[in-house]
Amino acid sequence: MRLPRVLRNLAFVAGLAGASVLPGHAQEPTINIMTGASTGTYIQFGRDMQQLMSACGKDMGVVETAGSLENFLGVRQRRYTQFGIVQNDVLEYMQTFASQDPVVARTIRGVRIAFPLYEEEVHILARNDISGLRDLTGKRVAIGVEDSGTFLTASLMLSLAGVEPAEKVLIGPADGLEQLKAGNIDAFFYVAGAPASLYSENAIDGAQFHLVPIADDTLRSVYTPSTLPANTYPFQTEPVDLVSVKAVLMTFEYQMNGNAYHRAACGAVSDLSSLILTNLDELKASGHPKWQDVDLTAIPPGWDISGCVNRGISPGYVASCTAPTTNNSPESEANEVYRRSICEVMGC
């Protein structure tokens, strides 16, 4: 399997930059989260967090990416990027290869957990004559692009199950759906929290295609067994047994007593952490449905929580929000003096 080489090559590129390097030029916005494809759950979670920050008067960019591997490395190498959503199996294999490879070890140094999020299901959409995972042997299967979490998960699952497709096609899920409909491939993998808009918002003929059940004992011991309820998607009328992997919000171990960039980044991490914790019920009620499954105590083993996160969720911490502006005209100096006097006497 080529996975170790892919990880090492990506890690080498990340090692050339590093989050501690000061940016050479201005970039807006100065707070960013790396997510995933436009049809996935990561980007919807990113937009939910973006709304929290916006209500706090802070501009946070939501960056569309290929997925977990790119996101993990982004918190190390991309300017003004404090957050990335990553699959837990990516974290586990980064840890595994770190013990064998000093380049990978340098890459994961300083990367920290912000919050554990939710379980995301491994979807394999295929022609209806493919009844199980082993039927993918000798078939044309899209496994995602190389810097995505889907690529890593699909590669591992096929290897663990002893399944060897005739061709592993390196395309993303949106292209995979198009190529499946055109008959150019037989199936494609997509790791995304259900309901994923790729399946909800595109016409998929249930008479031709279905989600392949994952019943392999080895895979169900390595990954978390899950069941997709009937009618999660319009074409899926029966429940489907799958496996899932946890999504995690990652950040970097910024130093509050470090340089200006580190102080600002740590402040952003603390603020978003505080906002997520204090608004979790609202996120579960009005955000993506997967917020209802978020368990903030389910920390992946072997990884540490960021100090800036702990600062933000500590009792008494208040996010440095800017009050929304209701009048575009600047307040006069006399009025500012008046307000300060009133506040000193009566409190504000």
From TrEMBL:
InterPro entries noted in UniProt: TRAP_TAXI
Signal peptide: 1-26
This protein's UniProt keywords: Signal
Pfam families: NMT1_3 (PF16868)
Keyword Lipid biosynthesis: no
PANTHER family reported for this sequence: SLL1037 PROTEIN (PTHR42941:SF1)
Name by which UniProt lists this protein: TAXI family TRAP transporter solute-binding subunit
Organism: Paracoccus marinaquae
